[in-house]
Amino acid sequence: MDIQIPFKVLSVSEYDVLFEDIKAIPKKYSPEQILAILNRTLIHPAVIMQEINKESRDITNIYRVRVLKEKEIINDISDPQEFSYPPKECCKLQRCNFEGEPVFYGAMDANTPLEEAKKSIMLGKSICYLSKWGIKECPEPLWCQRMFYGLPENEDYVAGVFSTALREGIRKILPALSKEQMDGMSYYLKKYQELFTSPGEENYHITASIVSDLFKNYHGKELGNAPYHINMPIFTYPSIARNKESLNYAITTEFADEYLYLKYVDKIIVKSFEGDRVNYAISERGIVENGKVVWVKRETKLLNDPFSEARLFRGEVMNNEYYAVKDTDHKFLRMSNDKVMSIRDYFKMNSIDLQEYIDELSAKEVNDYNESNVYEKSTGIAIPVENIYIVNKDNTREKINAIGVSVHYSTGFHFD
User: Fold this and answer.
1) Would you say 309 and 316 are in contact if contact means Cβ atoms under 8 Å apart?
2) Could you tell me the residue ranges of all domains in the chain?
3) What's the pTM?
4) Residue ranges of E strands in 290-396
5) What is the mean pLDDT of the chain?
């Protein structure tokens, strides 16, 4: 008995031709013209919705970044809207919106929006505002479109988890598909996903048309025989900047205005991009009080006596070859001129300010603790030295390459 399905599944080569025709749609065409072509060409359903239930909504964090241009000044640093979507006059054609029609772009983690904005960030110079947003109580059910078809199916990263779930969802929706048909449908959906995840801007006029139509024409529609309407103001898709392993959001401005809220915003300077990690220093944090962003500078405080003990490294610090010293006030360090002094005296004589070291350390590390306004940490600091020796019991000299001390400090933002 033949398997009956409501549409024909094509071959891989036929799908390749179909999507090449789509990508050839001229950029000069209006959104209406583009949609008319897409509606004729896209022969299978490609809107696969997923509900965001209350539990998921409550734990959802959305991060976005605003990178200031050189000499740019924010008009009102206390206005949360300054860190939300841009005004219409500043909005150009992008992956999920047309010129003059902004959407709220965000990402599921703090590193992704910085990677997305990498080309506009000057390391060590650009002032960036990295904001974290949540979703308020809103009408249910809340739906979103997931654009993760055809990605590697595994659980090593979020996009892979969604890809697995979508394939299982298709099997449930279309249980009559044979393996050959399922493979064909999966290839079709993979090519559809690649419209959104191809590098560059070549497909923006197409993808913006799809998302714009999704937001305008799927919102408020009845869902089958269910006694409610579709509320689908969120579109999610893989981050190209993160090799499709992370998740980006495009959210309607109407939903953003009414149901997104700013948790906090950090003023940062990006130091480096290293693999999938972005190193940045936070100088100030803003939280919302009575509808206004209140700013507090980062404070760092040394909590212990770093000279209670020390280490004298004989070789490279990484080789961990050292003498442990309990009495740091004992004068056993020898200079090249045979002058002797204690470790504490050496730091004082050379104006080595450990506060400066922990300021630099905490500025790099505070982004790992962004769920808490203040945290404490203990670490070791190795200070390179030159022309320092100790005298062994047999009166031989041994050169010291670094002096290590332990510090315990607090850092963060003290809000009243």
Assistant:
1) no
2) 12-297, 301-412
3) 0.80
4) 292-297, 299-302, 310-313, 322-325, 333-335, 340-341, 374-391
5) 85
